[in-house]
Structures are given as C-alpha cells and as structure tokens.
Design a protein that fits this description.
Blueprint: H1 9-15, E1 21-22, H2 23-33, H3 38-42, H4 52-66, E2 70-74, E3 77-80, H5 82-90, H6 97-100, H7 104-112, H8 119-124, H9 130-154, H10 158-171, E4 182-184, E5 195-198, E6 206-212, H11 222-234, E7 239-244, H12 250-258, E8 262-266, H13 268-277, H14 295-298
Parallel strand pairs: 6-7, 7-8
Antiparallel strand pairs: 1-3, 2-3, 4-5, 5-6
Helix pairs in contact: 2-4, 9-13, 11-12
C-alpha cells in the first residue's frame, strides 16, 4: 500500500541526513524501503502527469520545508537543517503535522494557507459542498506552491531576479508589444535603479524598477526606500516599483506612503502570487473544468 504523506515525513527527513540529496533519489530509495510493487510505483494521479507516490513524497518534503526542517538547495535538491537534525535526535516515532506544529514557521504557513487548527473547524468542513472543498484545496495548493516558488527566486542570481521582474511586468501588459519595452539595467549601476519599463506601447511614460533579492527575514528598511526615491528624482520619474523577495518593514511602508513620488511595494509573497497568475516561472500542470447546466440549451 502506498503510504500517506505524513507517514513519509520521517523517512524523507532521515534520507536527507546523507547531505544534499535529490528528491528523485529520495523517491526511488523510499519506494524500495516501503517495498512498493511495480503497480504501486507506477500508479498515476488523475492528471496522469505524476505518480501518486512521488506526489506524496514531494508533499512530505514541502511540509518539512515549511517547518524549517529541510531547506531547498537547488533544482530538485534539498538538505536537512540543524532543526531537522534536532527533531530526529529528540523525537522518537513518526513525524507528522502534530510534530511540525511545534515550529512557528509551520504555524505561520498554516495561517497563510487557512489551515483548520481545531476539531470544531474540521467538523464544519463536513458541511462544505464539493465545489467549495475543491476550491479550498486549490487555494491551499497555490499557497504552498507560492512559498516554494519564492524560495527558488531567492536562490537565483541578482541578474536573474532583475530580468524576472521585467518579464513579469511585460506579462502583466506594461509596454505593449514592443520588444524593447522593458529591460534590466542594474548591472550597469545606472543611477540606483535595476530596470525600466514603458508604461504604454509608445513609451511616452516609463516606470523604474528597484529589485532586491533578499533572504527571508532580511527585510527592506526605510533607508532603501529613500535611496530609491532619490534615484527616481535623478531620472525625473514620477513612478517606481520596488520589488523584494523578502518583506518591507513598517517604516519602509510608511516612508513609501509619505513620499510625493508614487512608489508601489511588492514583497515576496505578492511577487509569487503574481508569478503564478501570469505564468512566470511556472506552468499549468492540469486543468479541471467545473460544469453547470446550460439553462438556455433546455429552454
């Protein structure tokens, strides 16, 4: 029988004790450990694009990551963290969501994905209609995916990050169809801005971009906002977009609101949501169509 994702959490964490490991190697190793049959290894999800066992192993790794017990190190790669080693040393028995809820990072993750934390709310879900349940699951999947996506962004190079922002704004409709409507210019150190994009197809007005690829917890302060404001003044620009892969401090938000120039702030979570919406750095794996009766047809 294919184990559920919570049963897989401890084996996934234990396998990471070998150093940096790939999720593909983990899946193969655990399939042997659980003595899965050829049919169980090959069993696909309804989308027919991933095996059920690989999907559950990936979800186990994802939840461990949200608790800070493993960290992503590259494409398809992860490793155990000091917190993960401590859990293995101190906790005997299965590692499940109850164990992960001891960690603040996982609690924050649950809050962001609207997880139900008590028995009462779990019972209330029994009254949900099937389409409500489906949409709730969709939101949870996207919220978890957004966190994984921004982690990949944080592990990229500054140049990649700057180009990503330009590509996103072009996908959102800025600059029209012109091939040179947007460009990353941060490598040249051009006056304290990292990119510029036309606001309209003719390039009559331009928006300047500041992109800061910072690690989680390294938040943007008010000083960085004032520096960007000064760079915009040099360019005689009226609008700017400040994007970070981390967050903005309260003082940074207050400073941006107080300045005369229009500065839009986009933090890491907002960035990930926009990337998902406009298919930047991701693609559709499956599409589910929810049908309803066409009343006009039966009239």
């Amino acid at each position: 029988m294919i184990p559920d994702y919570q049963t897989l959490m401890r084996p996934v964490l234990e396998y990471a004790q070998n150093g940096e490991v790939s999720i593909s190697d983990t899946i193969e190793f655990l399939a042997d450990q659980f003595n899965l049959t050829a049919e169980e290894r090959a069993e696909l999800l309804p989308s027919k694009k991933q095996t059920r066992f690989a999907n559950r192993t990936n979800w186990a790794k994802s939840y461990l990551k949200q608790a800070g017990l493993v960290e992503i190190t590259g494409r398809g790669l992860y490793r155990i963290t000091p917190a993960g080693k401590e859990v293995l040393a101190k906790h005997v028995g299965p590692i499940d969501r109850g164990v992960l809820e001891q960690f603040d990072d996982f609690i924050d993750f649950q809050n962001r994905t609207n997880e139900k934390k008590n028995e009462a709310s779990q019972h209330s879900s029994l009254s949900d209609t099937p389409d409500e349940t489906l949409r709730e699951a969709y939101e949870k999947i996207n919220a978890s995916f957004a966190l994984d996506l921004i982690d990949r962004v944080r592990n990229s190079t500054p140049e990649f990050f700057e180009n990503l922002i330009v590509q996103l704004l072009l996908a959102m409709g800025y600059g029209g169809t012109s091939e040179d409507a947007g460009q990353a210019i941060g490598q040249t150190g051009d006056g304290g801005v990292d990119g510029v994009i036309d606001q309209d197809p003719l390039g009559v007005d331009q928006i300047y971009i500041q992109a800061k690829r910072y690690a989680e917890g390294n938040n943007i302060g008010a000083g960085a906002i004032r520096d960007f404001f000064g760079a915009l003044n040099i360019k005689k620009a009226q609008k700017g977009i400040f994007v970070t892969s981390s967050k903005f401090s309260p003082s940074a938000k207050d400073t941006a609101s107080a300045l005369g120039t229009r500065i839009v702030l986009i933090d890491g979570l907002q960035l990930a949501k926009l990337m998902i919406r406009y298919n930047i750095g991701c693609r559709d794996e499956d599409i589910l169509h929810i049908k309803k009766i066409d009343e006009d047809f039966f009239e």
